[in-house]
Design a protein that fits this description.
about 230 residues, 4-stranded antiparallel β-sheet, 6 helices, ribonucleoprotein, nucleus, alpha+beta, U1 small nuclear ribonucleoprotein 70 kDa, elongated
């Protein structure tokens, strides 16, 4: 094929490439010869090996941290129990033997609504809904009645009553009427805590048994209050 008449930029494609640079071949290094370990035997220990250090796995670590947390919380509770005195709170009610504890309250319930629900049992002296530092309701309150008869009627009939689509819990005020009583936040309360392992392990038969025991206790307390 003749290159005559081709443009320069086409002729460049047919030109020979420059020669490659010459490099000396790589010489492989000689590997060291294999030797024995006889010269290094004096570096080994001739005594018994130290005891093996057992490292904890994830399950053991979780169990250890759980036990440490429980122990720490128990110590804090003991310290708080020392300074706990329910008789210092004079703002609660004046007569503990005529005061009911109302639990599991809806956060939308106020004193006016609570008074409307409980004044059917008798004349009310004072209603106290408990709030936190940010003035948010904690879900429980105290109601003090004028007469013991009204107190007994409310204690007997109001338990399980629905207020704002929630069944309330009615009980006597135990902090100032029962010796060595502590609230739930200090490790006290009645029965196992909701969501605890003891509560999960309880069968239906045990629940019924606890319910019957509580009813007997309530009847005995009513009898004591009447006396």
């Amino acid at each position: 094929m003749s290159a005559i008449g081709m443009p320069p930029h086409i002729l460049i494609l047919f030109q020979a490439r420059p020669l490659l640079n010459y490099y000396k071949p790589i010489q492989k290094k000689k590997s060291k010869e294999y030797t024995g370990i006889a010269d290094f035997l004096n570096y080994f220990e001739d005594t018994e090996p130290p005891p093996k250090i057992k490292l904890e796995n994830n399950i053991e670590r979780k169990e250890r941290k759980k036990k440490e947390k429980i122990t720490y919380n128990e110590l804090i509770m003991k310290e708080k129990r020392k300074s706990y005195d329910p008789f210092k709170n004079n703002d609660l009610t004046s007569d503990a033997h005529k005061t009911l504890f109302i639990g599991r309250l809806s956060y939308d319930v106020n004193e006016k609504k609570l008074k409307k629900e409980f004044e059917t049992y008798g004349k009310i002296r004072k209603i106290k809904i408990i709030y936190d530092k940010n003035y948010k309701p904690k879900g429980y309150a105290f109601i003090e009645f004028e007469h013991t008869k009204s107190f007994n009627e409310a204690y007997k009939l109001a338990d399980g009553k629905k207020i704002e689509n929630r069944r309330i819990l009615v009980d006597i005020e135990r902090a100032r009427t029962i010796k060595n009583w502590y609230p739930r936040r200090l490790g006290g309360g009645k029965g196992p805590a909701r969501g605890s392992n003891e509560k999960k392990k309880m069968t239906h038969r045990k629940c019924v048994h606890i319910y019957i025991c509580r009813e007997r206790e309530r009847k005995r307390e009513r009898y004591i209050v009447k006396l």
